[in-house]
Amino acid sequence: MSSELRVEQVSVVYPEQAFAALDKVSLTIGAKDLTVALGPSGCGKTTLLNLLAGFVQPSSGQLSLNGQRITRPGADRAVVFQDDALLPWLNVLDNVAFGLRLQGVSKTEREKTANAMLSLVGLAEFAQQQIWQLSGGMRQRVGIARALASHSEVLLMDEPFGALDAFTREQMQELLLKVWSHTGRRIFLITHDIEEALILASHLVLMTPRPGRIQESLTLDFNQRWLKGEPIRSIKSDPSFIRLREQLLSSLTAQPALREAA
Amino acid sequence: MSTLESTLVIPPEAASRLPSKLQWQGFWQRHQYLLLGLISVSALTFIWWLVTALELVPSLFLPAPQAVWNKFLVVSSQGFMDATLWQHTAASLQRILLGLWFAVIIGIPVGLWIGCNQVVRGLLDPLVEIYRPIPPLAYLPLLVIWFGIGETTKVLLIFLAILAPIIIATAHGVSSAGKSRQRAAQSLGATPSQLLWHVTLPAALPSILTGVRIGLGAGWSTLVAAELVAATRGLGFMVQSAAQFLVTDTVILGILVIAAIAFAIEIGLRYLQKRLTPWYSHYE
Ligand SMILES: Nc1ncnc2c1ncn2[C@@H]1O[C@H](COP(=O)(O)OP(=O)(O)O)[C@@H](O)[C@H]1O
Ligand SMILES: [Mg+2]
Description:
CATH class of the largest domain in chain B: Mainly Alpha
Number of helices of chain A: 11
CATH topology of the largest domain in chain B: MetI-like fold
Low-confidence stretches of chain B: 1-10
CATH class of the largest domain in chain A: Alpha Beta
CATH architecture of the largest domain in chain A: 3-Layer(aba) Sandwich
Order of helices and strands of chain A: EEEHEEEHHHHEHEHEEHHHH
Distance between the termini of chain B: 17 Å
Structural class of chain A: alpha/beta
Order of helices and strands of chain B: HHHHHHHHHHHHH
Oligomer: heterodimer
Strand content of chain A: 15-25%
CATH superfamily of the largest domain in chain B: MetI-like
CATH superfamily of the largest domain in chain A: P-loop containing nucleotide triphosphate hydrolases
Low-confidence stretches of chain A: 258-262
Bound molecules: adenosine-5'-diphosphate, magnesium ion
Strand order of the largest sheet of chain A: 6-7-8-3-9-10
Number of helices of chain B: 13
Largest interface: A-B, 32 and 25 residues
Mean pLDDT of chain B: 86
Radius of gyration of chain B: 24 Å
Strand content of chain B: under 5%
Number of strands of chain A: 10
Shape of chain A: globular
Radius of gyration of chain A: 18 Å
Number of domains of chain A: 2
Mean pLDDT of chain A: 88
CATH topology of the largest domain in chain A: Rossmann fold
Helix content of chain A: 25-40%
Distance between the termini of chain A: 40 Å
């Protein structure tokens, strides 16, 4: 119970906004979960992630990790952003080792860890490259390796593949699943892409806007099928996958606000 | 992207086998601006020489290029007004380097402070904005009243001329750290001082160097002008006293040296910017 990431009755109201960005949201993310929050833009996904990271404070309610209240950012919660947020004045290896350097880990030790993480994301040969020499997908992998290297207890990912092309995105999704099953790291990922949510999540929460709420919570195992080697096309054309996809789509479009946006 | 580029770049050993016309084209493309610049400077020098050789203008007004060159040799070895050209140059350079040094060690921290703290920004921004547009020579007389015509006044003047661009550029550079970069670092455990040292400062560096470049440009023109007014040594002083005795070739020599140093400062800082912040042109 204490190794949980808990969100309890959390509300966030931004000044001069008619609706609460989050309204009494509760959520528990277990030790080995890959929890995906799915919802249209404006439903409070980023706000929820920022709360977990400690970047913003709730108007009411509270958040905790392993029984410790979350009040500010910390090395136990690493964040991967949509834009890579890497440090372009450091090379790939130094970027990945950056968190360990901040913690005072010795150079040899941190480079060993960083190299291991780079291998994990398939960038072992790129350790000495400069950030600007990498493609968008590779930068995002460096961002993941950097988050992994810091030995955080949870990875918080804000639409990490949103800016990538469809082909690269699928590769990154597969990579993320492998990293997740290999490291057993707890992950909280947000997306507005229904298929991405279904294929990645072990635990999916569906969020709706105005005010931001969790409407549904599902336990899924499509990711296990992909990990066991079933082709992605066959999973995505499985009737149960299609049924869930349509079901989620209709509960999302049932929101009047969304029909305007779409 | 990078693979595409690398297939388009011709490897050096292949380049030597290319027909010479293509080689010349490649050379032209790489050094186009340098070559065009050389052409215009040589043309100007040639016209200068022609005008003097045809004696269209009395040499009192416009001495020949070779006269200026001879003067260069003379002033370098024997000097003018009790000091050689190098001593005048060193006097000017020492002043500007001192002014730059103080402007950097005060301007960068103040700029960071303004950039990071809303209250400090609110307090200091108006002061900087009031003093920045005043031409430094406008308050030179006041500095002379306060500090006399010694070195203090000149270094202080240069310092003030360079300070404003550095403060403003540094404060501006702070914002280029970017919110997600800062937050990512915080979530990797960065303390406020680590954030400043490892994220904010390097992110601001390209902007800071631009500020130094602008500041040095302003400082150099201010310095030379200040030396016209109050000095016993320095390039500005050399030009001014030569003009009083109508030694026109020394005047032109001084102007050329002043221009050459300004040019060298600009080129040097651009090079430094490329070396220290190579990511900048790729990334922003
Ligand atoms: N800093 C802020 N100030 C005011 N309103 C905000 C701020 N951040 C987000 N909001 C509002 O809160 C709601 C939820 O935003 P966000 O959490 O970014 O949603 P999502 O990530 O799902 O798109 C939106 O209506 C947005 O306009
Ligand atoms: Mg968002």
